[in-house]
TrEMBL record:
Gene3D superfamilies the UniProt entry points to: Vaccinia Virus protein VP39
EC number: 2.1.1.166
Domain (Ribosomal RNA methyltransferase FtsJ) ranges: 45-223
Lineage: superkingdom: Bacteria
Keyword S-adenosyl-L-methionine in annotation: yes
Protein name: Ribosomal RNA large subunit methyltransferase E
Residues that bind S-adenosyl-L-methionine: 77, 79, 100, 116, 140
Source organism (scientific name): Jiella pacifica
Location(s), subcellular: Cytoplasm
One Pfam short name: FtsJ
Any GO molecular function: rRNA (uridine-2'-O-)-methyltransferase activity
Taxonomic lineage: Bacteria, Pseudomonadati, Pseudomonadota, Alphaproteobacteria, Hyphomicrobiales
Length: 248
C-alpha cells in the first residue's frame, strides 16, 4: 500500500496482488479512505453505520432515557451501542435487546441474541428477553446481495415488511419504527400499512450513507396502537422525499 491515509487529503492505494479481485481491492481502498470508518475506529464504535443512527436520532429524537429498544440485524453492534447510550441502559437494568444470526461481540448494557429473526418463535423470544413492550424498534436487516439489483431489492423489502409487522404487533403506543429499505421502492402496501398505524412517516437518507448508495431508511413515528389505527393517512415529510429521491 502507498500513502498513510490520514485526514489531510492523503489517499491509500492498495497494490494489485495475484488472486485478489479488482472489486475486493476497490472495496478495501474505499474502507481505508472513508472518514466515517476512521472516525468510528477513533471513537470506539463498531462500524461507520453507527453515525447513521446518531444522525437520524439527532434529527428525529427517537430515544429517551428509560425506553426499551429492539435492534433487528444488530451485527456488528454499532446501532446497539447508540441505543444503549441514549436510553441509558445498563447491565443492571437492561432495556436494549439486539438480534442477528451473525456473531456479535458483547455490548455493555444490552443483550444480544445470536438467532435468525425469521425462525419460528424468535420474535416472541425477543419480547420475552426484553420483558416489556418496546418503545423503539430498529431494523438494519438486509439480505445478502446476489448482484442482481431487483432481486436484492425484493429480498431486503421482505425483511422490511417482516420487521414492520413485528413492530405493529409489539410496539408500545407512541413508539417508533426505523428500517432499512432502498431508493425507488418503499412498496405501496407497506407504505399504506405504516401510514395507517403511525402518525407520521419520514424517508431518511442520513449524511453517513455513502454517496451513490441506494440505501434508504423509512421512519414511522408515533405508533397509534392496534386499537387506534384508522384509515387516515399519516403525515409525510416532503423535504425528506426530495432529499431521498422518488419513492413508492
Amino acid at each position: 500500500m502507498a500513502g498513510r491515509g490520514d485526514d489531510r487529503g492523503m489517499t491509500v492505494r492498495v497494490k494489485k496482488k495475484h488472486g485478489v479481485k479488482a472489486s475486493s481491492r476497490r472495496w478495501l481502498e474505499r474502507q481505508l479512505n472513508d472518514p466515517y470508518v476512521r472516525r468510528a475506529k477513533a471513537d470506539g464504535y463498531r462500524s461507520r453505520a453507527t453515525y447513521k443512527m446518531i444522525e437520524i436520532d439527532d434529527r428525529y429524537k427517537l430515544f429517551k432515557p428509560g425506553q426499551a429498544v429492539v435492534d433487528l440485524g444488530a451485527a456488528p453492534g454499532g446501532w446497539t451501542q447508540v441505543a444503549v447510550d441514549r436510553v441509558k441502559s445498563t447491565n443492571e437494568h437492561i432495556s436494549v435487546v439486539g438480534i442477528d444470526y451473525l456473531p456479535v461481540e458483547p455490548v455493555t448494557g444490552a443483550v444480544i441474541l445470536e438467532l435468525d429473526f425469521l425462525d419460528d418463535g424468535v420474535p416472541e423470544k425477543l419480547i420475552e428477553t426484553l420483558g416489556r413492550a418496546p418503545d423503539v424498534i430498529l431494523s438494519d436487516m438486509a439480505a445478502p446481495t446476489t448482484g442482481h439489483r431487483r432481486t436484492d431489492h425484493l429480498r431486503t423489502m421482505h425483511l422490511c415488511e417482516v420487521a414492520a409487522d413485528f413492530a405493529i404487533r409489539t410496539l408500545k403506543p407512541g413508539g417508533h419504527f426505523l428500517a432499512k429499505t432502498f431508493q425507488g421502492g418503499t412498496e405501496n402496501d407497506l407504505l399504506t400499512l405504516l401510514k395507517r398505524n403511525f402518525t407520521s412517516i419520514h424517508h431518511v437518507k442520513p449524511p453517513a450513507s455513502r454517496e451513490g448508495s441506494v440505501e434508504l431508511y423509512i421512519l414511522a413515528k408515533g405508533f397509534k396502537g392496534l386499537n387506534l389505527a384508522r384509515d387516515e393517512p399519516a403525515e409525510e415529510i416532503a423535504e425528506d422525499d426530495e432529499e431521498a429521491g422518488p419513492l413508492g
